[in-house]
Amino acid sequence: MSTPKFISKLHDEALEMNGEIHNFASMLRTRCVLHLRNSHPSQARAGLARRQAA
After folding, report:
1. Burial status of residue 37 (CB atoms within 10 A of its CB: 0-12, 13-18, 19 or more)
2. Is residue 13 within 8 Å of 7, Cβ to Cβ?
3. For 11-25, what is the mean pLDDT?
4. What Å distances lie between residue 52 and 2, 19, 20, 45, 49, CA to CA?
5. Helix pair angle (24-39, 3-18), 10° resolution
6. Cα-atom radius of gyration of the chain, to the nearest Å?
7. What's the DSSP call for residue 9?
8. Nearest-angstrom CA–CA distance, 45 and 1
9. What sign does the dihedral 19-38-53-50 (CA atoms) show?
10. Predicted confidence (pLDDT) at residue 41 exceeds the cutoff of 90
11. Which helix (H) or strand (E) holds 39?
């Protein structure tokens, strides 16, 4: 699936589930961060520990 088609599918699914989306780009960024955090939990915890120590 091409990237534009994938993003369009995400947008359609989000509209179906939530109705109006005020800031789709922000939703995409947030979802990507959550996905990366969940796929690499040990690295996410290490990054959090570094930020808290600073």
Report:
1. middle
2. no
3. 89
4. 39, 37, 36, 10, 5
5. 100
6. 15
7. H
8. 32
9. negative
10. no
11. helix 24-39
**Predicted pLDDT of residue 21:** 85
**pLDDT recorded at residue 37:** 87
Q: Could you tell me the two tokens for 15?
A: 């509209």
Alpha-carbon gap, residue 38 to 17, rounded angstroms = 22
Query: CB of 14 within 8 A of CB of 24?
Result: yes
The two tokens of residue 39 are 């796929």
Would the pTM count as exceeding 0.70? no
Task: Give me the phi and psi of 20, to 5 degrees please.
Answer: -65, 140
**Rounded to whole angstroms, how far apart are CA atoms 23 and 9?**
16
Q: Which amino acid is at 24?
A: F
